[in-house]
Amino acid sequence: MSKLKTNPKVDAFVKKEKKWPTEVAALRKILLASPLEEDLKWGFPCYTMNDTNLVMIQSFKGFCALMFFKGFALKDPKGLLKAPGENSNVVSRFEFTKAAEITKAKAAINNFIKQSIKAEDTGVKLEKKTTKQPTMPAEFKTVLAKNKKLKTAFDGLTPGRQRLYLMHFSAAKQAATRVSRIEKCTPKILKGLGLND
Q: What is the pTM of this model?
């Protein structure tokens, strides 16, 4: 495998990196030895194949990470990869706090890179799972029973938007907080907007 040319935008990123300079440089060195192309996207070094994002180096406050865009397709028997959020089922990331951890994990990192390339080559797609709709809080049921306009508007939202609202309402531990959240979101629902719109 031939060594890639470095991207000047990534050179600039590496020079400015304050929190994890050694770790970012170590991850970059591994990625530059792969057949992927280097770019800077969303402010981070990103490695692509056929214009498709496969791997990204990320720098956070508590760790630096290698994020795999097709994490769902990677075999990880040792459980080295983590989901970036509880509702994330596509991407995975390998987190590091010391350069020595990267050196120790070099073979695993190269394996994940090879798997990512293979997943892209073979066109692996994430199987759509039927996501179970979160339970509707009693407070929201009561409001919908009294407000037909709101019920019609809520029923008219996409399943994803409905799901986000229900998760947002249900996440509140106290009934008063759930009621407050429902009241704050009612105008958005009536306008046909999602929680984050």
A: 0.64
The number of residues making up the chain comes to: 197
Round to whole Å and give the CA distance between 27 and 109: 9
pLDDT band at 1 (very low <50, low <70, confident <90, very high): very low
Residue 129 has a pLDDT of: 54
> What angle (nearest 5°) sits at the alpha carbon of residue 99, between those of residues 16 and 79?
115
CA dihedral 176, 192, 84, 42 (to 10 degrees): -130
What per-residue confidence (pLDDT) applies to 87? 63
Domains of the chain: 8-121 (3.90.1150.200), 138-190 (no CATH)
> For the sheet containing 44-49, what is the strand order?
37-41, 44-49, 52-59, 64-68, 92-96
